[in-house]
Amino acid sequence: MVAIRKKTIGNNTYYYLEHSFREKGKVEKKEKYIGKKLPKNIEELKQHFISEIYRDKWFDLFDEIKDEYSAQREITPLSAREKEIENFMIKFTYDTNRIEGSKLTFRETSLLLEKSITPNAKPVVDIKEAEAHRSVFYEMLKYEKELSLKIILYLHKKLFENTKKDIAGKIRQHQVAISGSKFMPPFPAEVYPLLMAFLRWYGKNKDNIHPVELAALVHLKLVTIHPFADGNGRISRLMMNFILNKYGFPMLNIPYEKRADYYRVLERSQIKKDESIFLQWFFKRYIKEFKRYIERM
């Protein structure tokens, strides 16, 4: 989180922006002088400050990943690229649904989505939602317009129209809680105004924020609003990958096995209202997942 610090020297007062972060087990601090009076555009200055820090530490690496990823795709035959996307879709579908309680194993998900082999003695809901996620994933890849409420509602409806028709594509009108989390999602009356504010934020910042940071923030902001009765995590992770794919970056899967860390940073970020907690985790996860592209350069 970026904090405002005031220093008084003699009769003069000086204002600074300060950001603390953990690096190799130690707490490091960065600060920036912003004047003798507190500027009116303080939130904009905070965003520029944190972006400068992230740019120095992360963004060049992200761009290297994108460049090498794009170079590899150019020399990969179309059929092989399509197979790579299918493999990612299967793993992504397994993990995103498993995080939310699906009983299907990875092998069962793979056989279902790749060979249409339906698993025995598994919940029909889990099977239908895996098939729906596959369909929605490919629709997301083909969608060329900007992120909007219309596409969010449409994709949510497609995810759940065969299993939870009463909530599919509908903004919730009741209070919800997140099992095992101390964070309480917004009240029902707040949801639509928060969605509108989210979309205004996206429209204003989509061309000014690095795409990897934008993808992480879209995920965090949308899942924090929690606009639906169910499926908020799944739709948020889909929108995250919509942004990454739209800007030519490799898409990210959050493995079921890593769910404890994922839940922890989400909850801390939401309770403390500090986006940097989730962003730091997301950036490290992205670098770790795609370091092979950096090592090739």
UniProtKB/TrEMBL annotation:
Q: Which residues form the Fido domain?
A: 147-284
What is this protein's record name? Answer: Fido domain-containing protein
